[in-house]
UniProtKB/TrEMBL annotation:
Protein name: protein disulfide-isomerase
InterPro entries reported for this sequence: Thioredoxin-like_sf, Thioredoxin_domain
Localization annotation: Endoplasmic reticulum lumen
Protein EC: 5.3.4.1
Family affiliation: Belongs to the protein disulfide isomerase family.
GO cellular component: endoplasmic reticulum lumen
Record Pfam families: Thioredoxin, Thioredoxin_6
Species of the source: Cervus elaphus hippelaphus
Catalytic activities: Catalyzes the rearrangement of -S-S- bonds in proteins
Keywords assigned by UniProt, alphabetized: Disulfide bond, Endoplasmic reticulum, Isomerase, Redox-active center, Repeat, Signal
Gene Ontology terms describing biological process: protein folding; response to endoplasmic reticulum stress
Region spans: Disordered: 492-525
Recorded GO MF terms: protein disulfide isomerase activity
Domain (Thioredoxin) ranges: 1-106, 360-497
Length: 525
């Protein structure tokens, strides 16, 4: 490792906590083949980058020097500089790793000298970003190239040639996003430099380019440019699938309008033209998404409380508040109807809807009572009862947007076998309910927060425990203690308070001196 760090060029180091083939190291095992493929790709290109790996436990001094605390960790060392390695932030698949390195050991944007260079670049990709700068030594160029290093799903070009400024109708420094334009439809691929070609007849983009002029006084702001490129690199209508999901939630557009259709039905596909027509005025404000109910999207349907037979239909969601809106039953899906629905929701003219399961006939027959949205208020805020409720959901997250807007819609089932937090706590919760089942004033309950939404308060993180003490005032206490039967019991017996633990005595600690007339307190049994 020492020799590798001292050699020139760029290198990516990987630290392992265990051998890559160890069955218990899932992350290391998943990365190992991709890391090897990336090394082979770069070697075949004779790139000035090499990949290496370090066994962390076998090299503790290196792990400590580079502050490696979790595995696998990837760090990039440039030209033998060991004092300031760059943390790897790219994808964990072979082509993504290789491209991330290419843009660091080589140019992150291709230099365009002639009109033929520009057209060749644009013909090769669906989305191309070209920076037109009159002075390539300007600090705005460095900002542009810095962004290009990490925007791996786009291809970047750079020019200062007057003839290219003239060709594309520019008189000042401008970043231009060029997009291919085709027939009407919806996005199915990535739409970026790394995406595969679309099937015949599927839309490319609504317009051929989008311009981002550089402010002479303020200069080029990387954050503003990044948001601009992300928004305008997306098509007006994006079809939700495993390839587009990350881009949907990274777009930082808080309002999403979803059209649920069955792509195998001609009548449903004909609705796409009107849906796309309605999208244009809302670009940057509302993200238009198509969900195929005939594909593997049951988790999306579940989150919105829908069944496939209800398609075609619309749902609107604000991913920050998670409030969901539905049109009137039987509403048409035309350009005019979609436009009106968006405007009404954005102006606050329609109330959000909340999901609730039906109240089970035997909801109160087991020691653990079953709550849903429709009986939650009646039970939780009963002034004669102390109610302890577990709000649970699969810990992997099954929401359209979970807090940071980056949720991938998986694992929506309550208490799924892979939801370790819910699974681990379940026995203690059942034992607690059994212990207090004969206490008239105590109710132990659970609510599936995936299928039931509450007006009283949002629930974030699962399982979440809340205590609703008897009496007026709708008081709610968040439980923050240990999740075992003994601590649960102490909490209930004390009326919703956790007993204060005595501080542990530190071995060897000096005792404070007692005043002369002080007496030794006695321990009472």
């Amino acid at each position: 490792p020492e020799q590798g760090l001292q050699q020139g060029g760029g290198g990516l180091g990987r630290s392992w906590v265990c051998p890559p083939d160890a069955p218990w190291c899932g992350h290391c095992r998943a990365l190992a083949p991709e890391y090897s493929k990336a090394a082979a790709l770069l070697a075949a290109e004779s790139a000035r980058a090499r990949l290496a790996k370090v066994d962390g436990p076998a090299e503790p001094e290196l792990a400590e020097e580079f502050a490696v605390t979790e595995y696998p960790t990837l760090k990039f060392f440039r030209d033998g500089n060991r004092t300031h390695p760059e943390e790897y932030t790219g994808p964990r698949e072979a082509e993504g790793i290789a491209e991330w390195l290419r843009r660091r050991v080589g140019p992150s944007a291709r230099r365009l000298e002639h009109e033929e260079d520009a057209h060749a670049l644009m013909d090769a990709r669906d989305v191309v970003v070209v920076g037109f700068f009159q002075d390539l030594q300007d600090r705005d160029v460095a900002t542009f190239l810095g962004l290009a290093q990490d925007a791996l799903d786009m291809t970047f070009g750079l020019t200062n040639r007057p003839q290219l400024f003239q060709k594309f109708g520019l008189t000042k420094d401008t970043v231009v996003l060029f997009k291919k334009v085709g027939q009407a439809g919806s996005e199915r691929g990535r739409g970026g430099g790394a995406g595969s070609p679309d099937p015949p007849g599927v839309v490319q983009f609504d317009e051929g380019r989008a311009d981002f002029p550089v402010d002479k006084e303020l200069g080029l702001d990387q954050g503003d440019l990044s948001r601009f490129l992300l928004t305008h690199s997306m098509r007006l209508v994006t079809e939700y699938n495993s390839e587009t999901s990350s881009k949907i939630f990274e777009a930082r557009i808080l309002n999403h309008l979803l059209l649920f259709i069955n792509q195998t039905l001609d009548a449903h596909r004909e609705l796409l033209a009107g849906f796309r027509e309605a999208a244009s005025p809302f670009r940057g404000q509302v993200l238009f998404v198509v969900v195929d109910v005939n594909a593997d999207n049951d988790h999306v349907l579940q989150y919105f409380g829908l069944e496939a037979r209800e398609a075609p239909t619309l749902r609107f969601i604000n991913v920050e508040t998670t409030k969901k809106y539905a049109p009137e039953p039987g509403a048409l899906v035309t350009a005019a109807a979609v436009t009106d629905f968006c405007r009404v929701v954005l102006s606050g003219g329609v109330k959000p809807y909340r999901l609730s399961q039906e109240v089970p006939p035997d909801w109160d027959q087991r020691p653990v009572k079953t709550l849903v949205g429709k009986n939650f208020e009646q039970v939780a805020f009963d002034e004669t009862k102390n109610v302890f409720i577990k709000f649970c959901e699969c810990g992997c997250g099954g929401r359209w947007a979970a807090g940071a807007l980056l949720a991938v819609l998986t694992c929506p089932i309550l208490d799924a076998p892979w939801c370790t937090h819910c699974k681990e706590m379940a026995p203690a919760w059942e034992e607690l309910a059994e212990k207090y089942k004969d206490h008239e004033d105590i109710v132990i309950a659970e609510l599936d927060a995936t299928a039931n939404e509450l007006e009283a308060f949002p629930v974030h993180g699962f399982p979440t425990l809340k205590y609703f003490p008897a009496g007026p005032g709708r008081k709610v206490i968040d439980y923050k203690g240990a999740r075992d039967l003994e601590t649960f019991s102490k909490f209930l017996d004390s009326g919703g308070e956790l007993p204060t633990e005595e501080p542990a005595e530190v071995p060897g600690a000096a005792f404070p001196e007692k005043p002369g007339n002080a007496t030794e307190p006695r321990d009472e049994l």
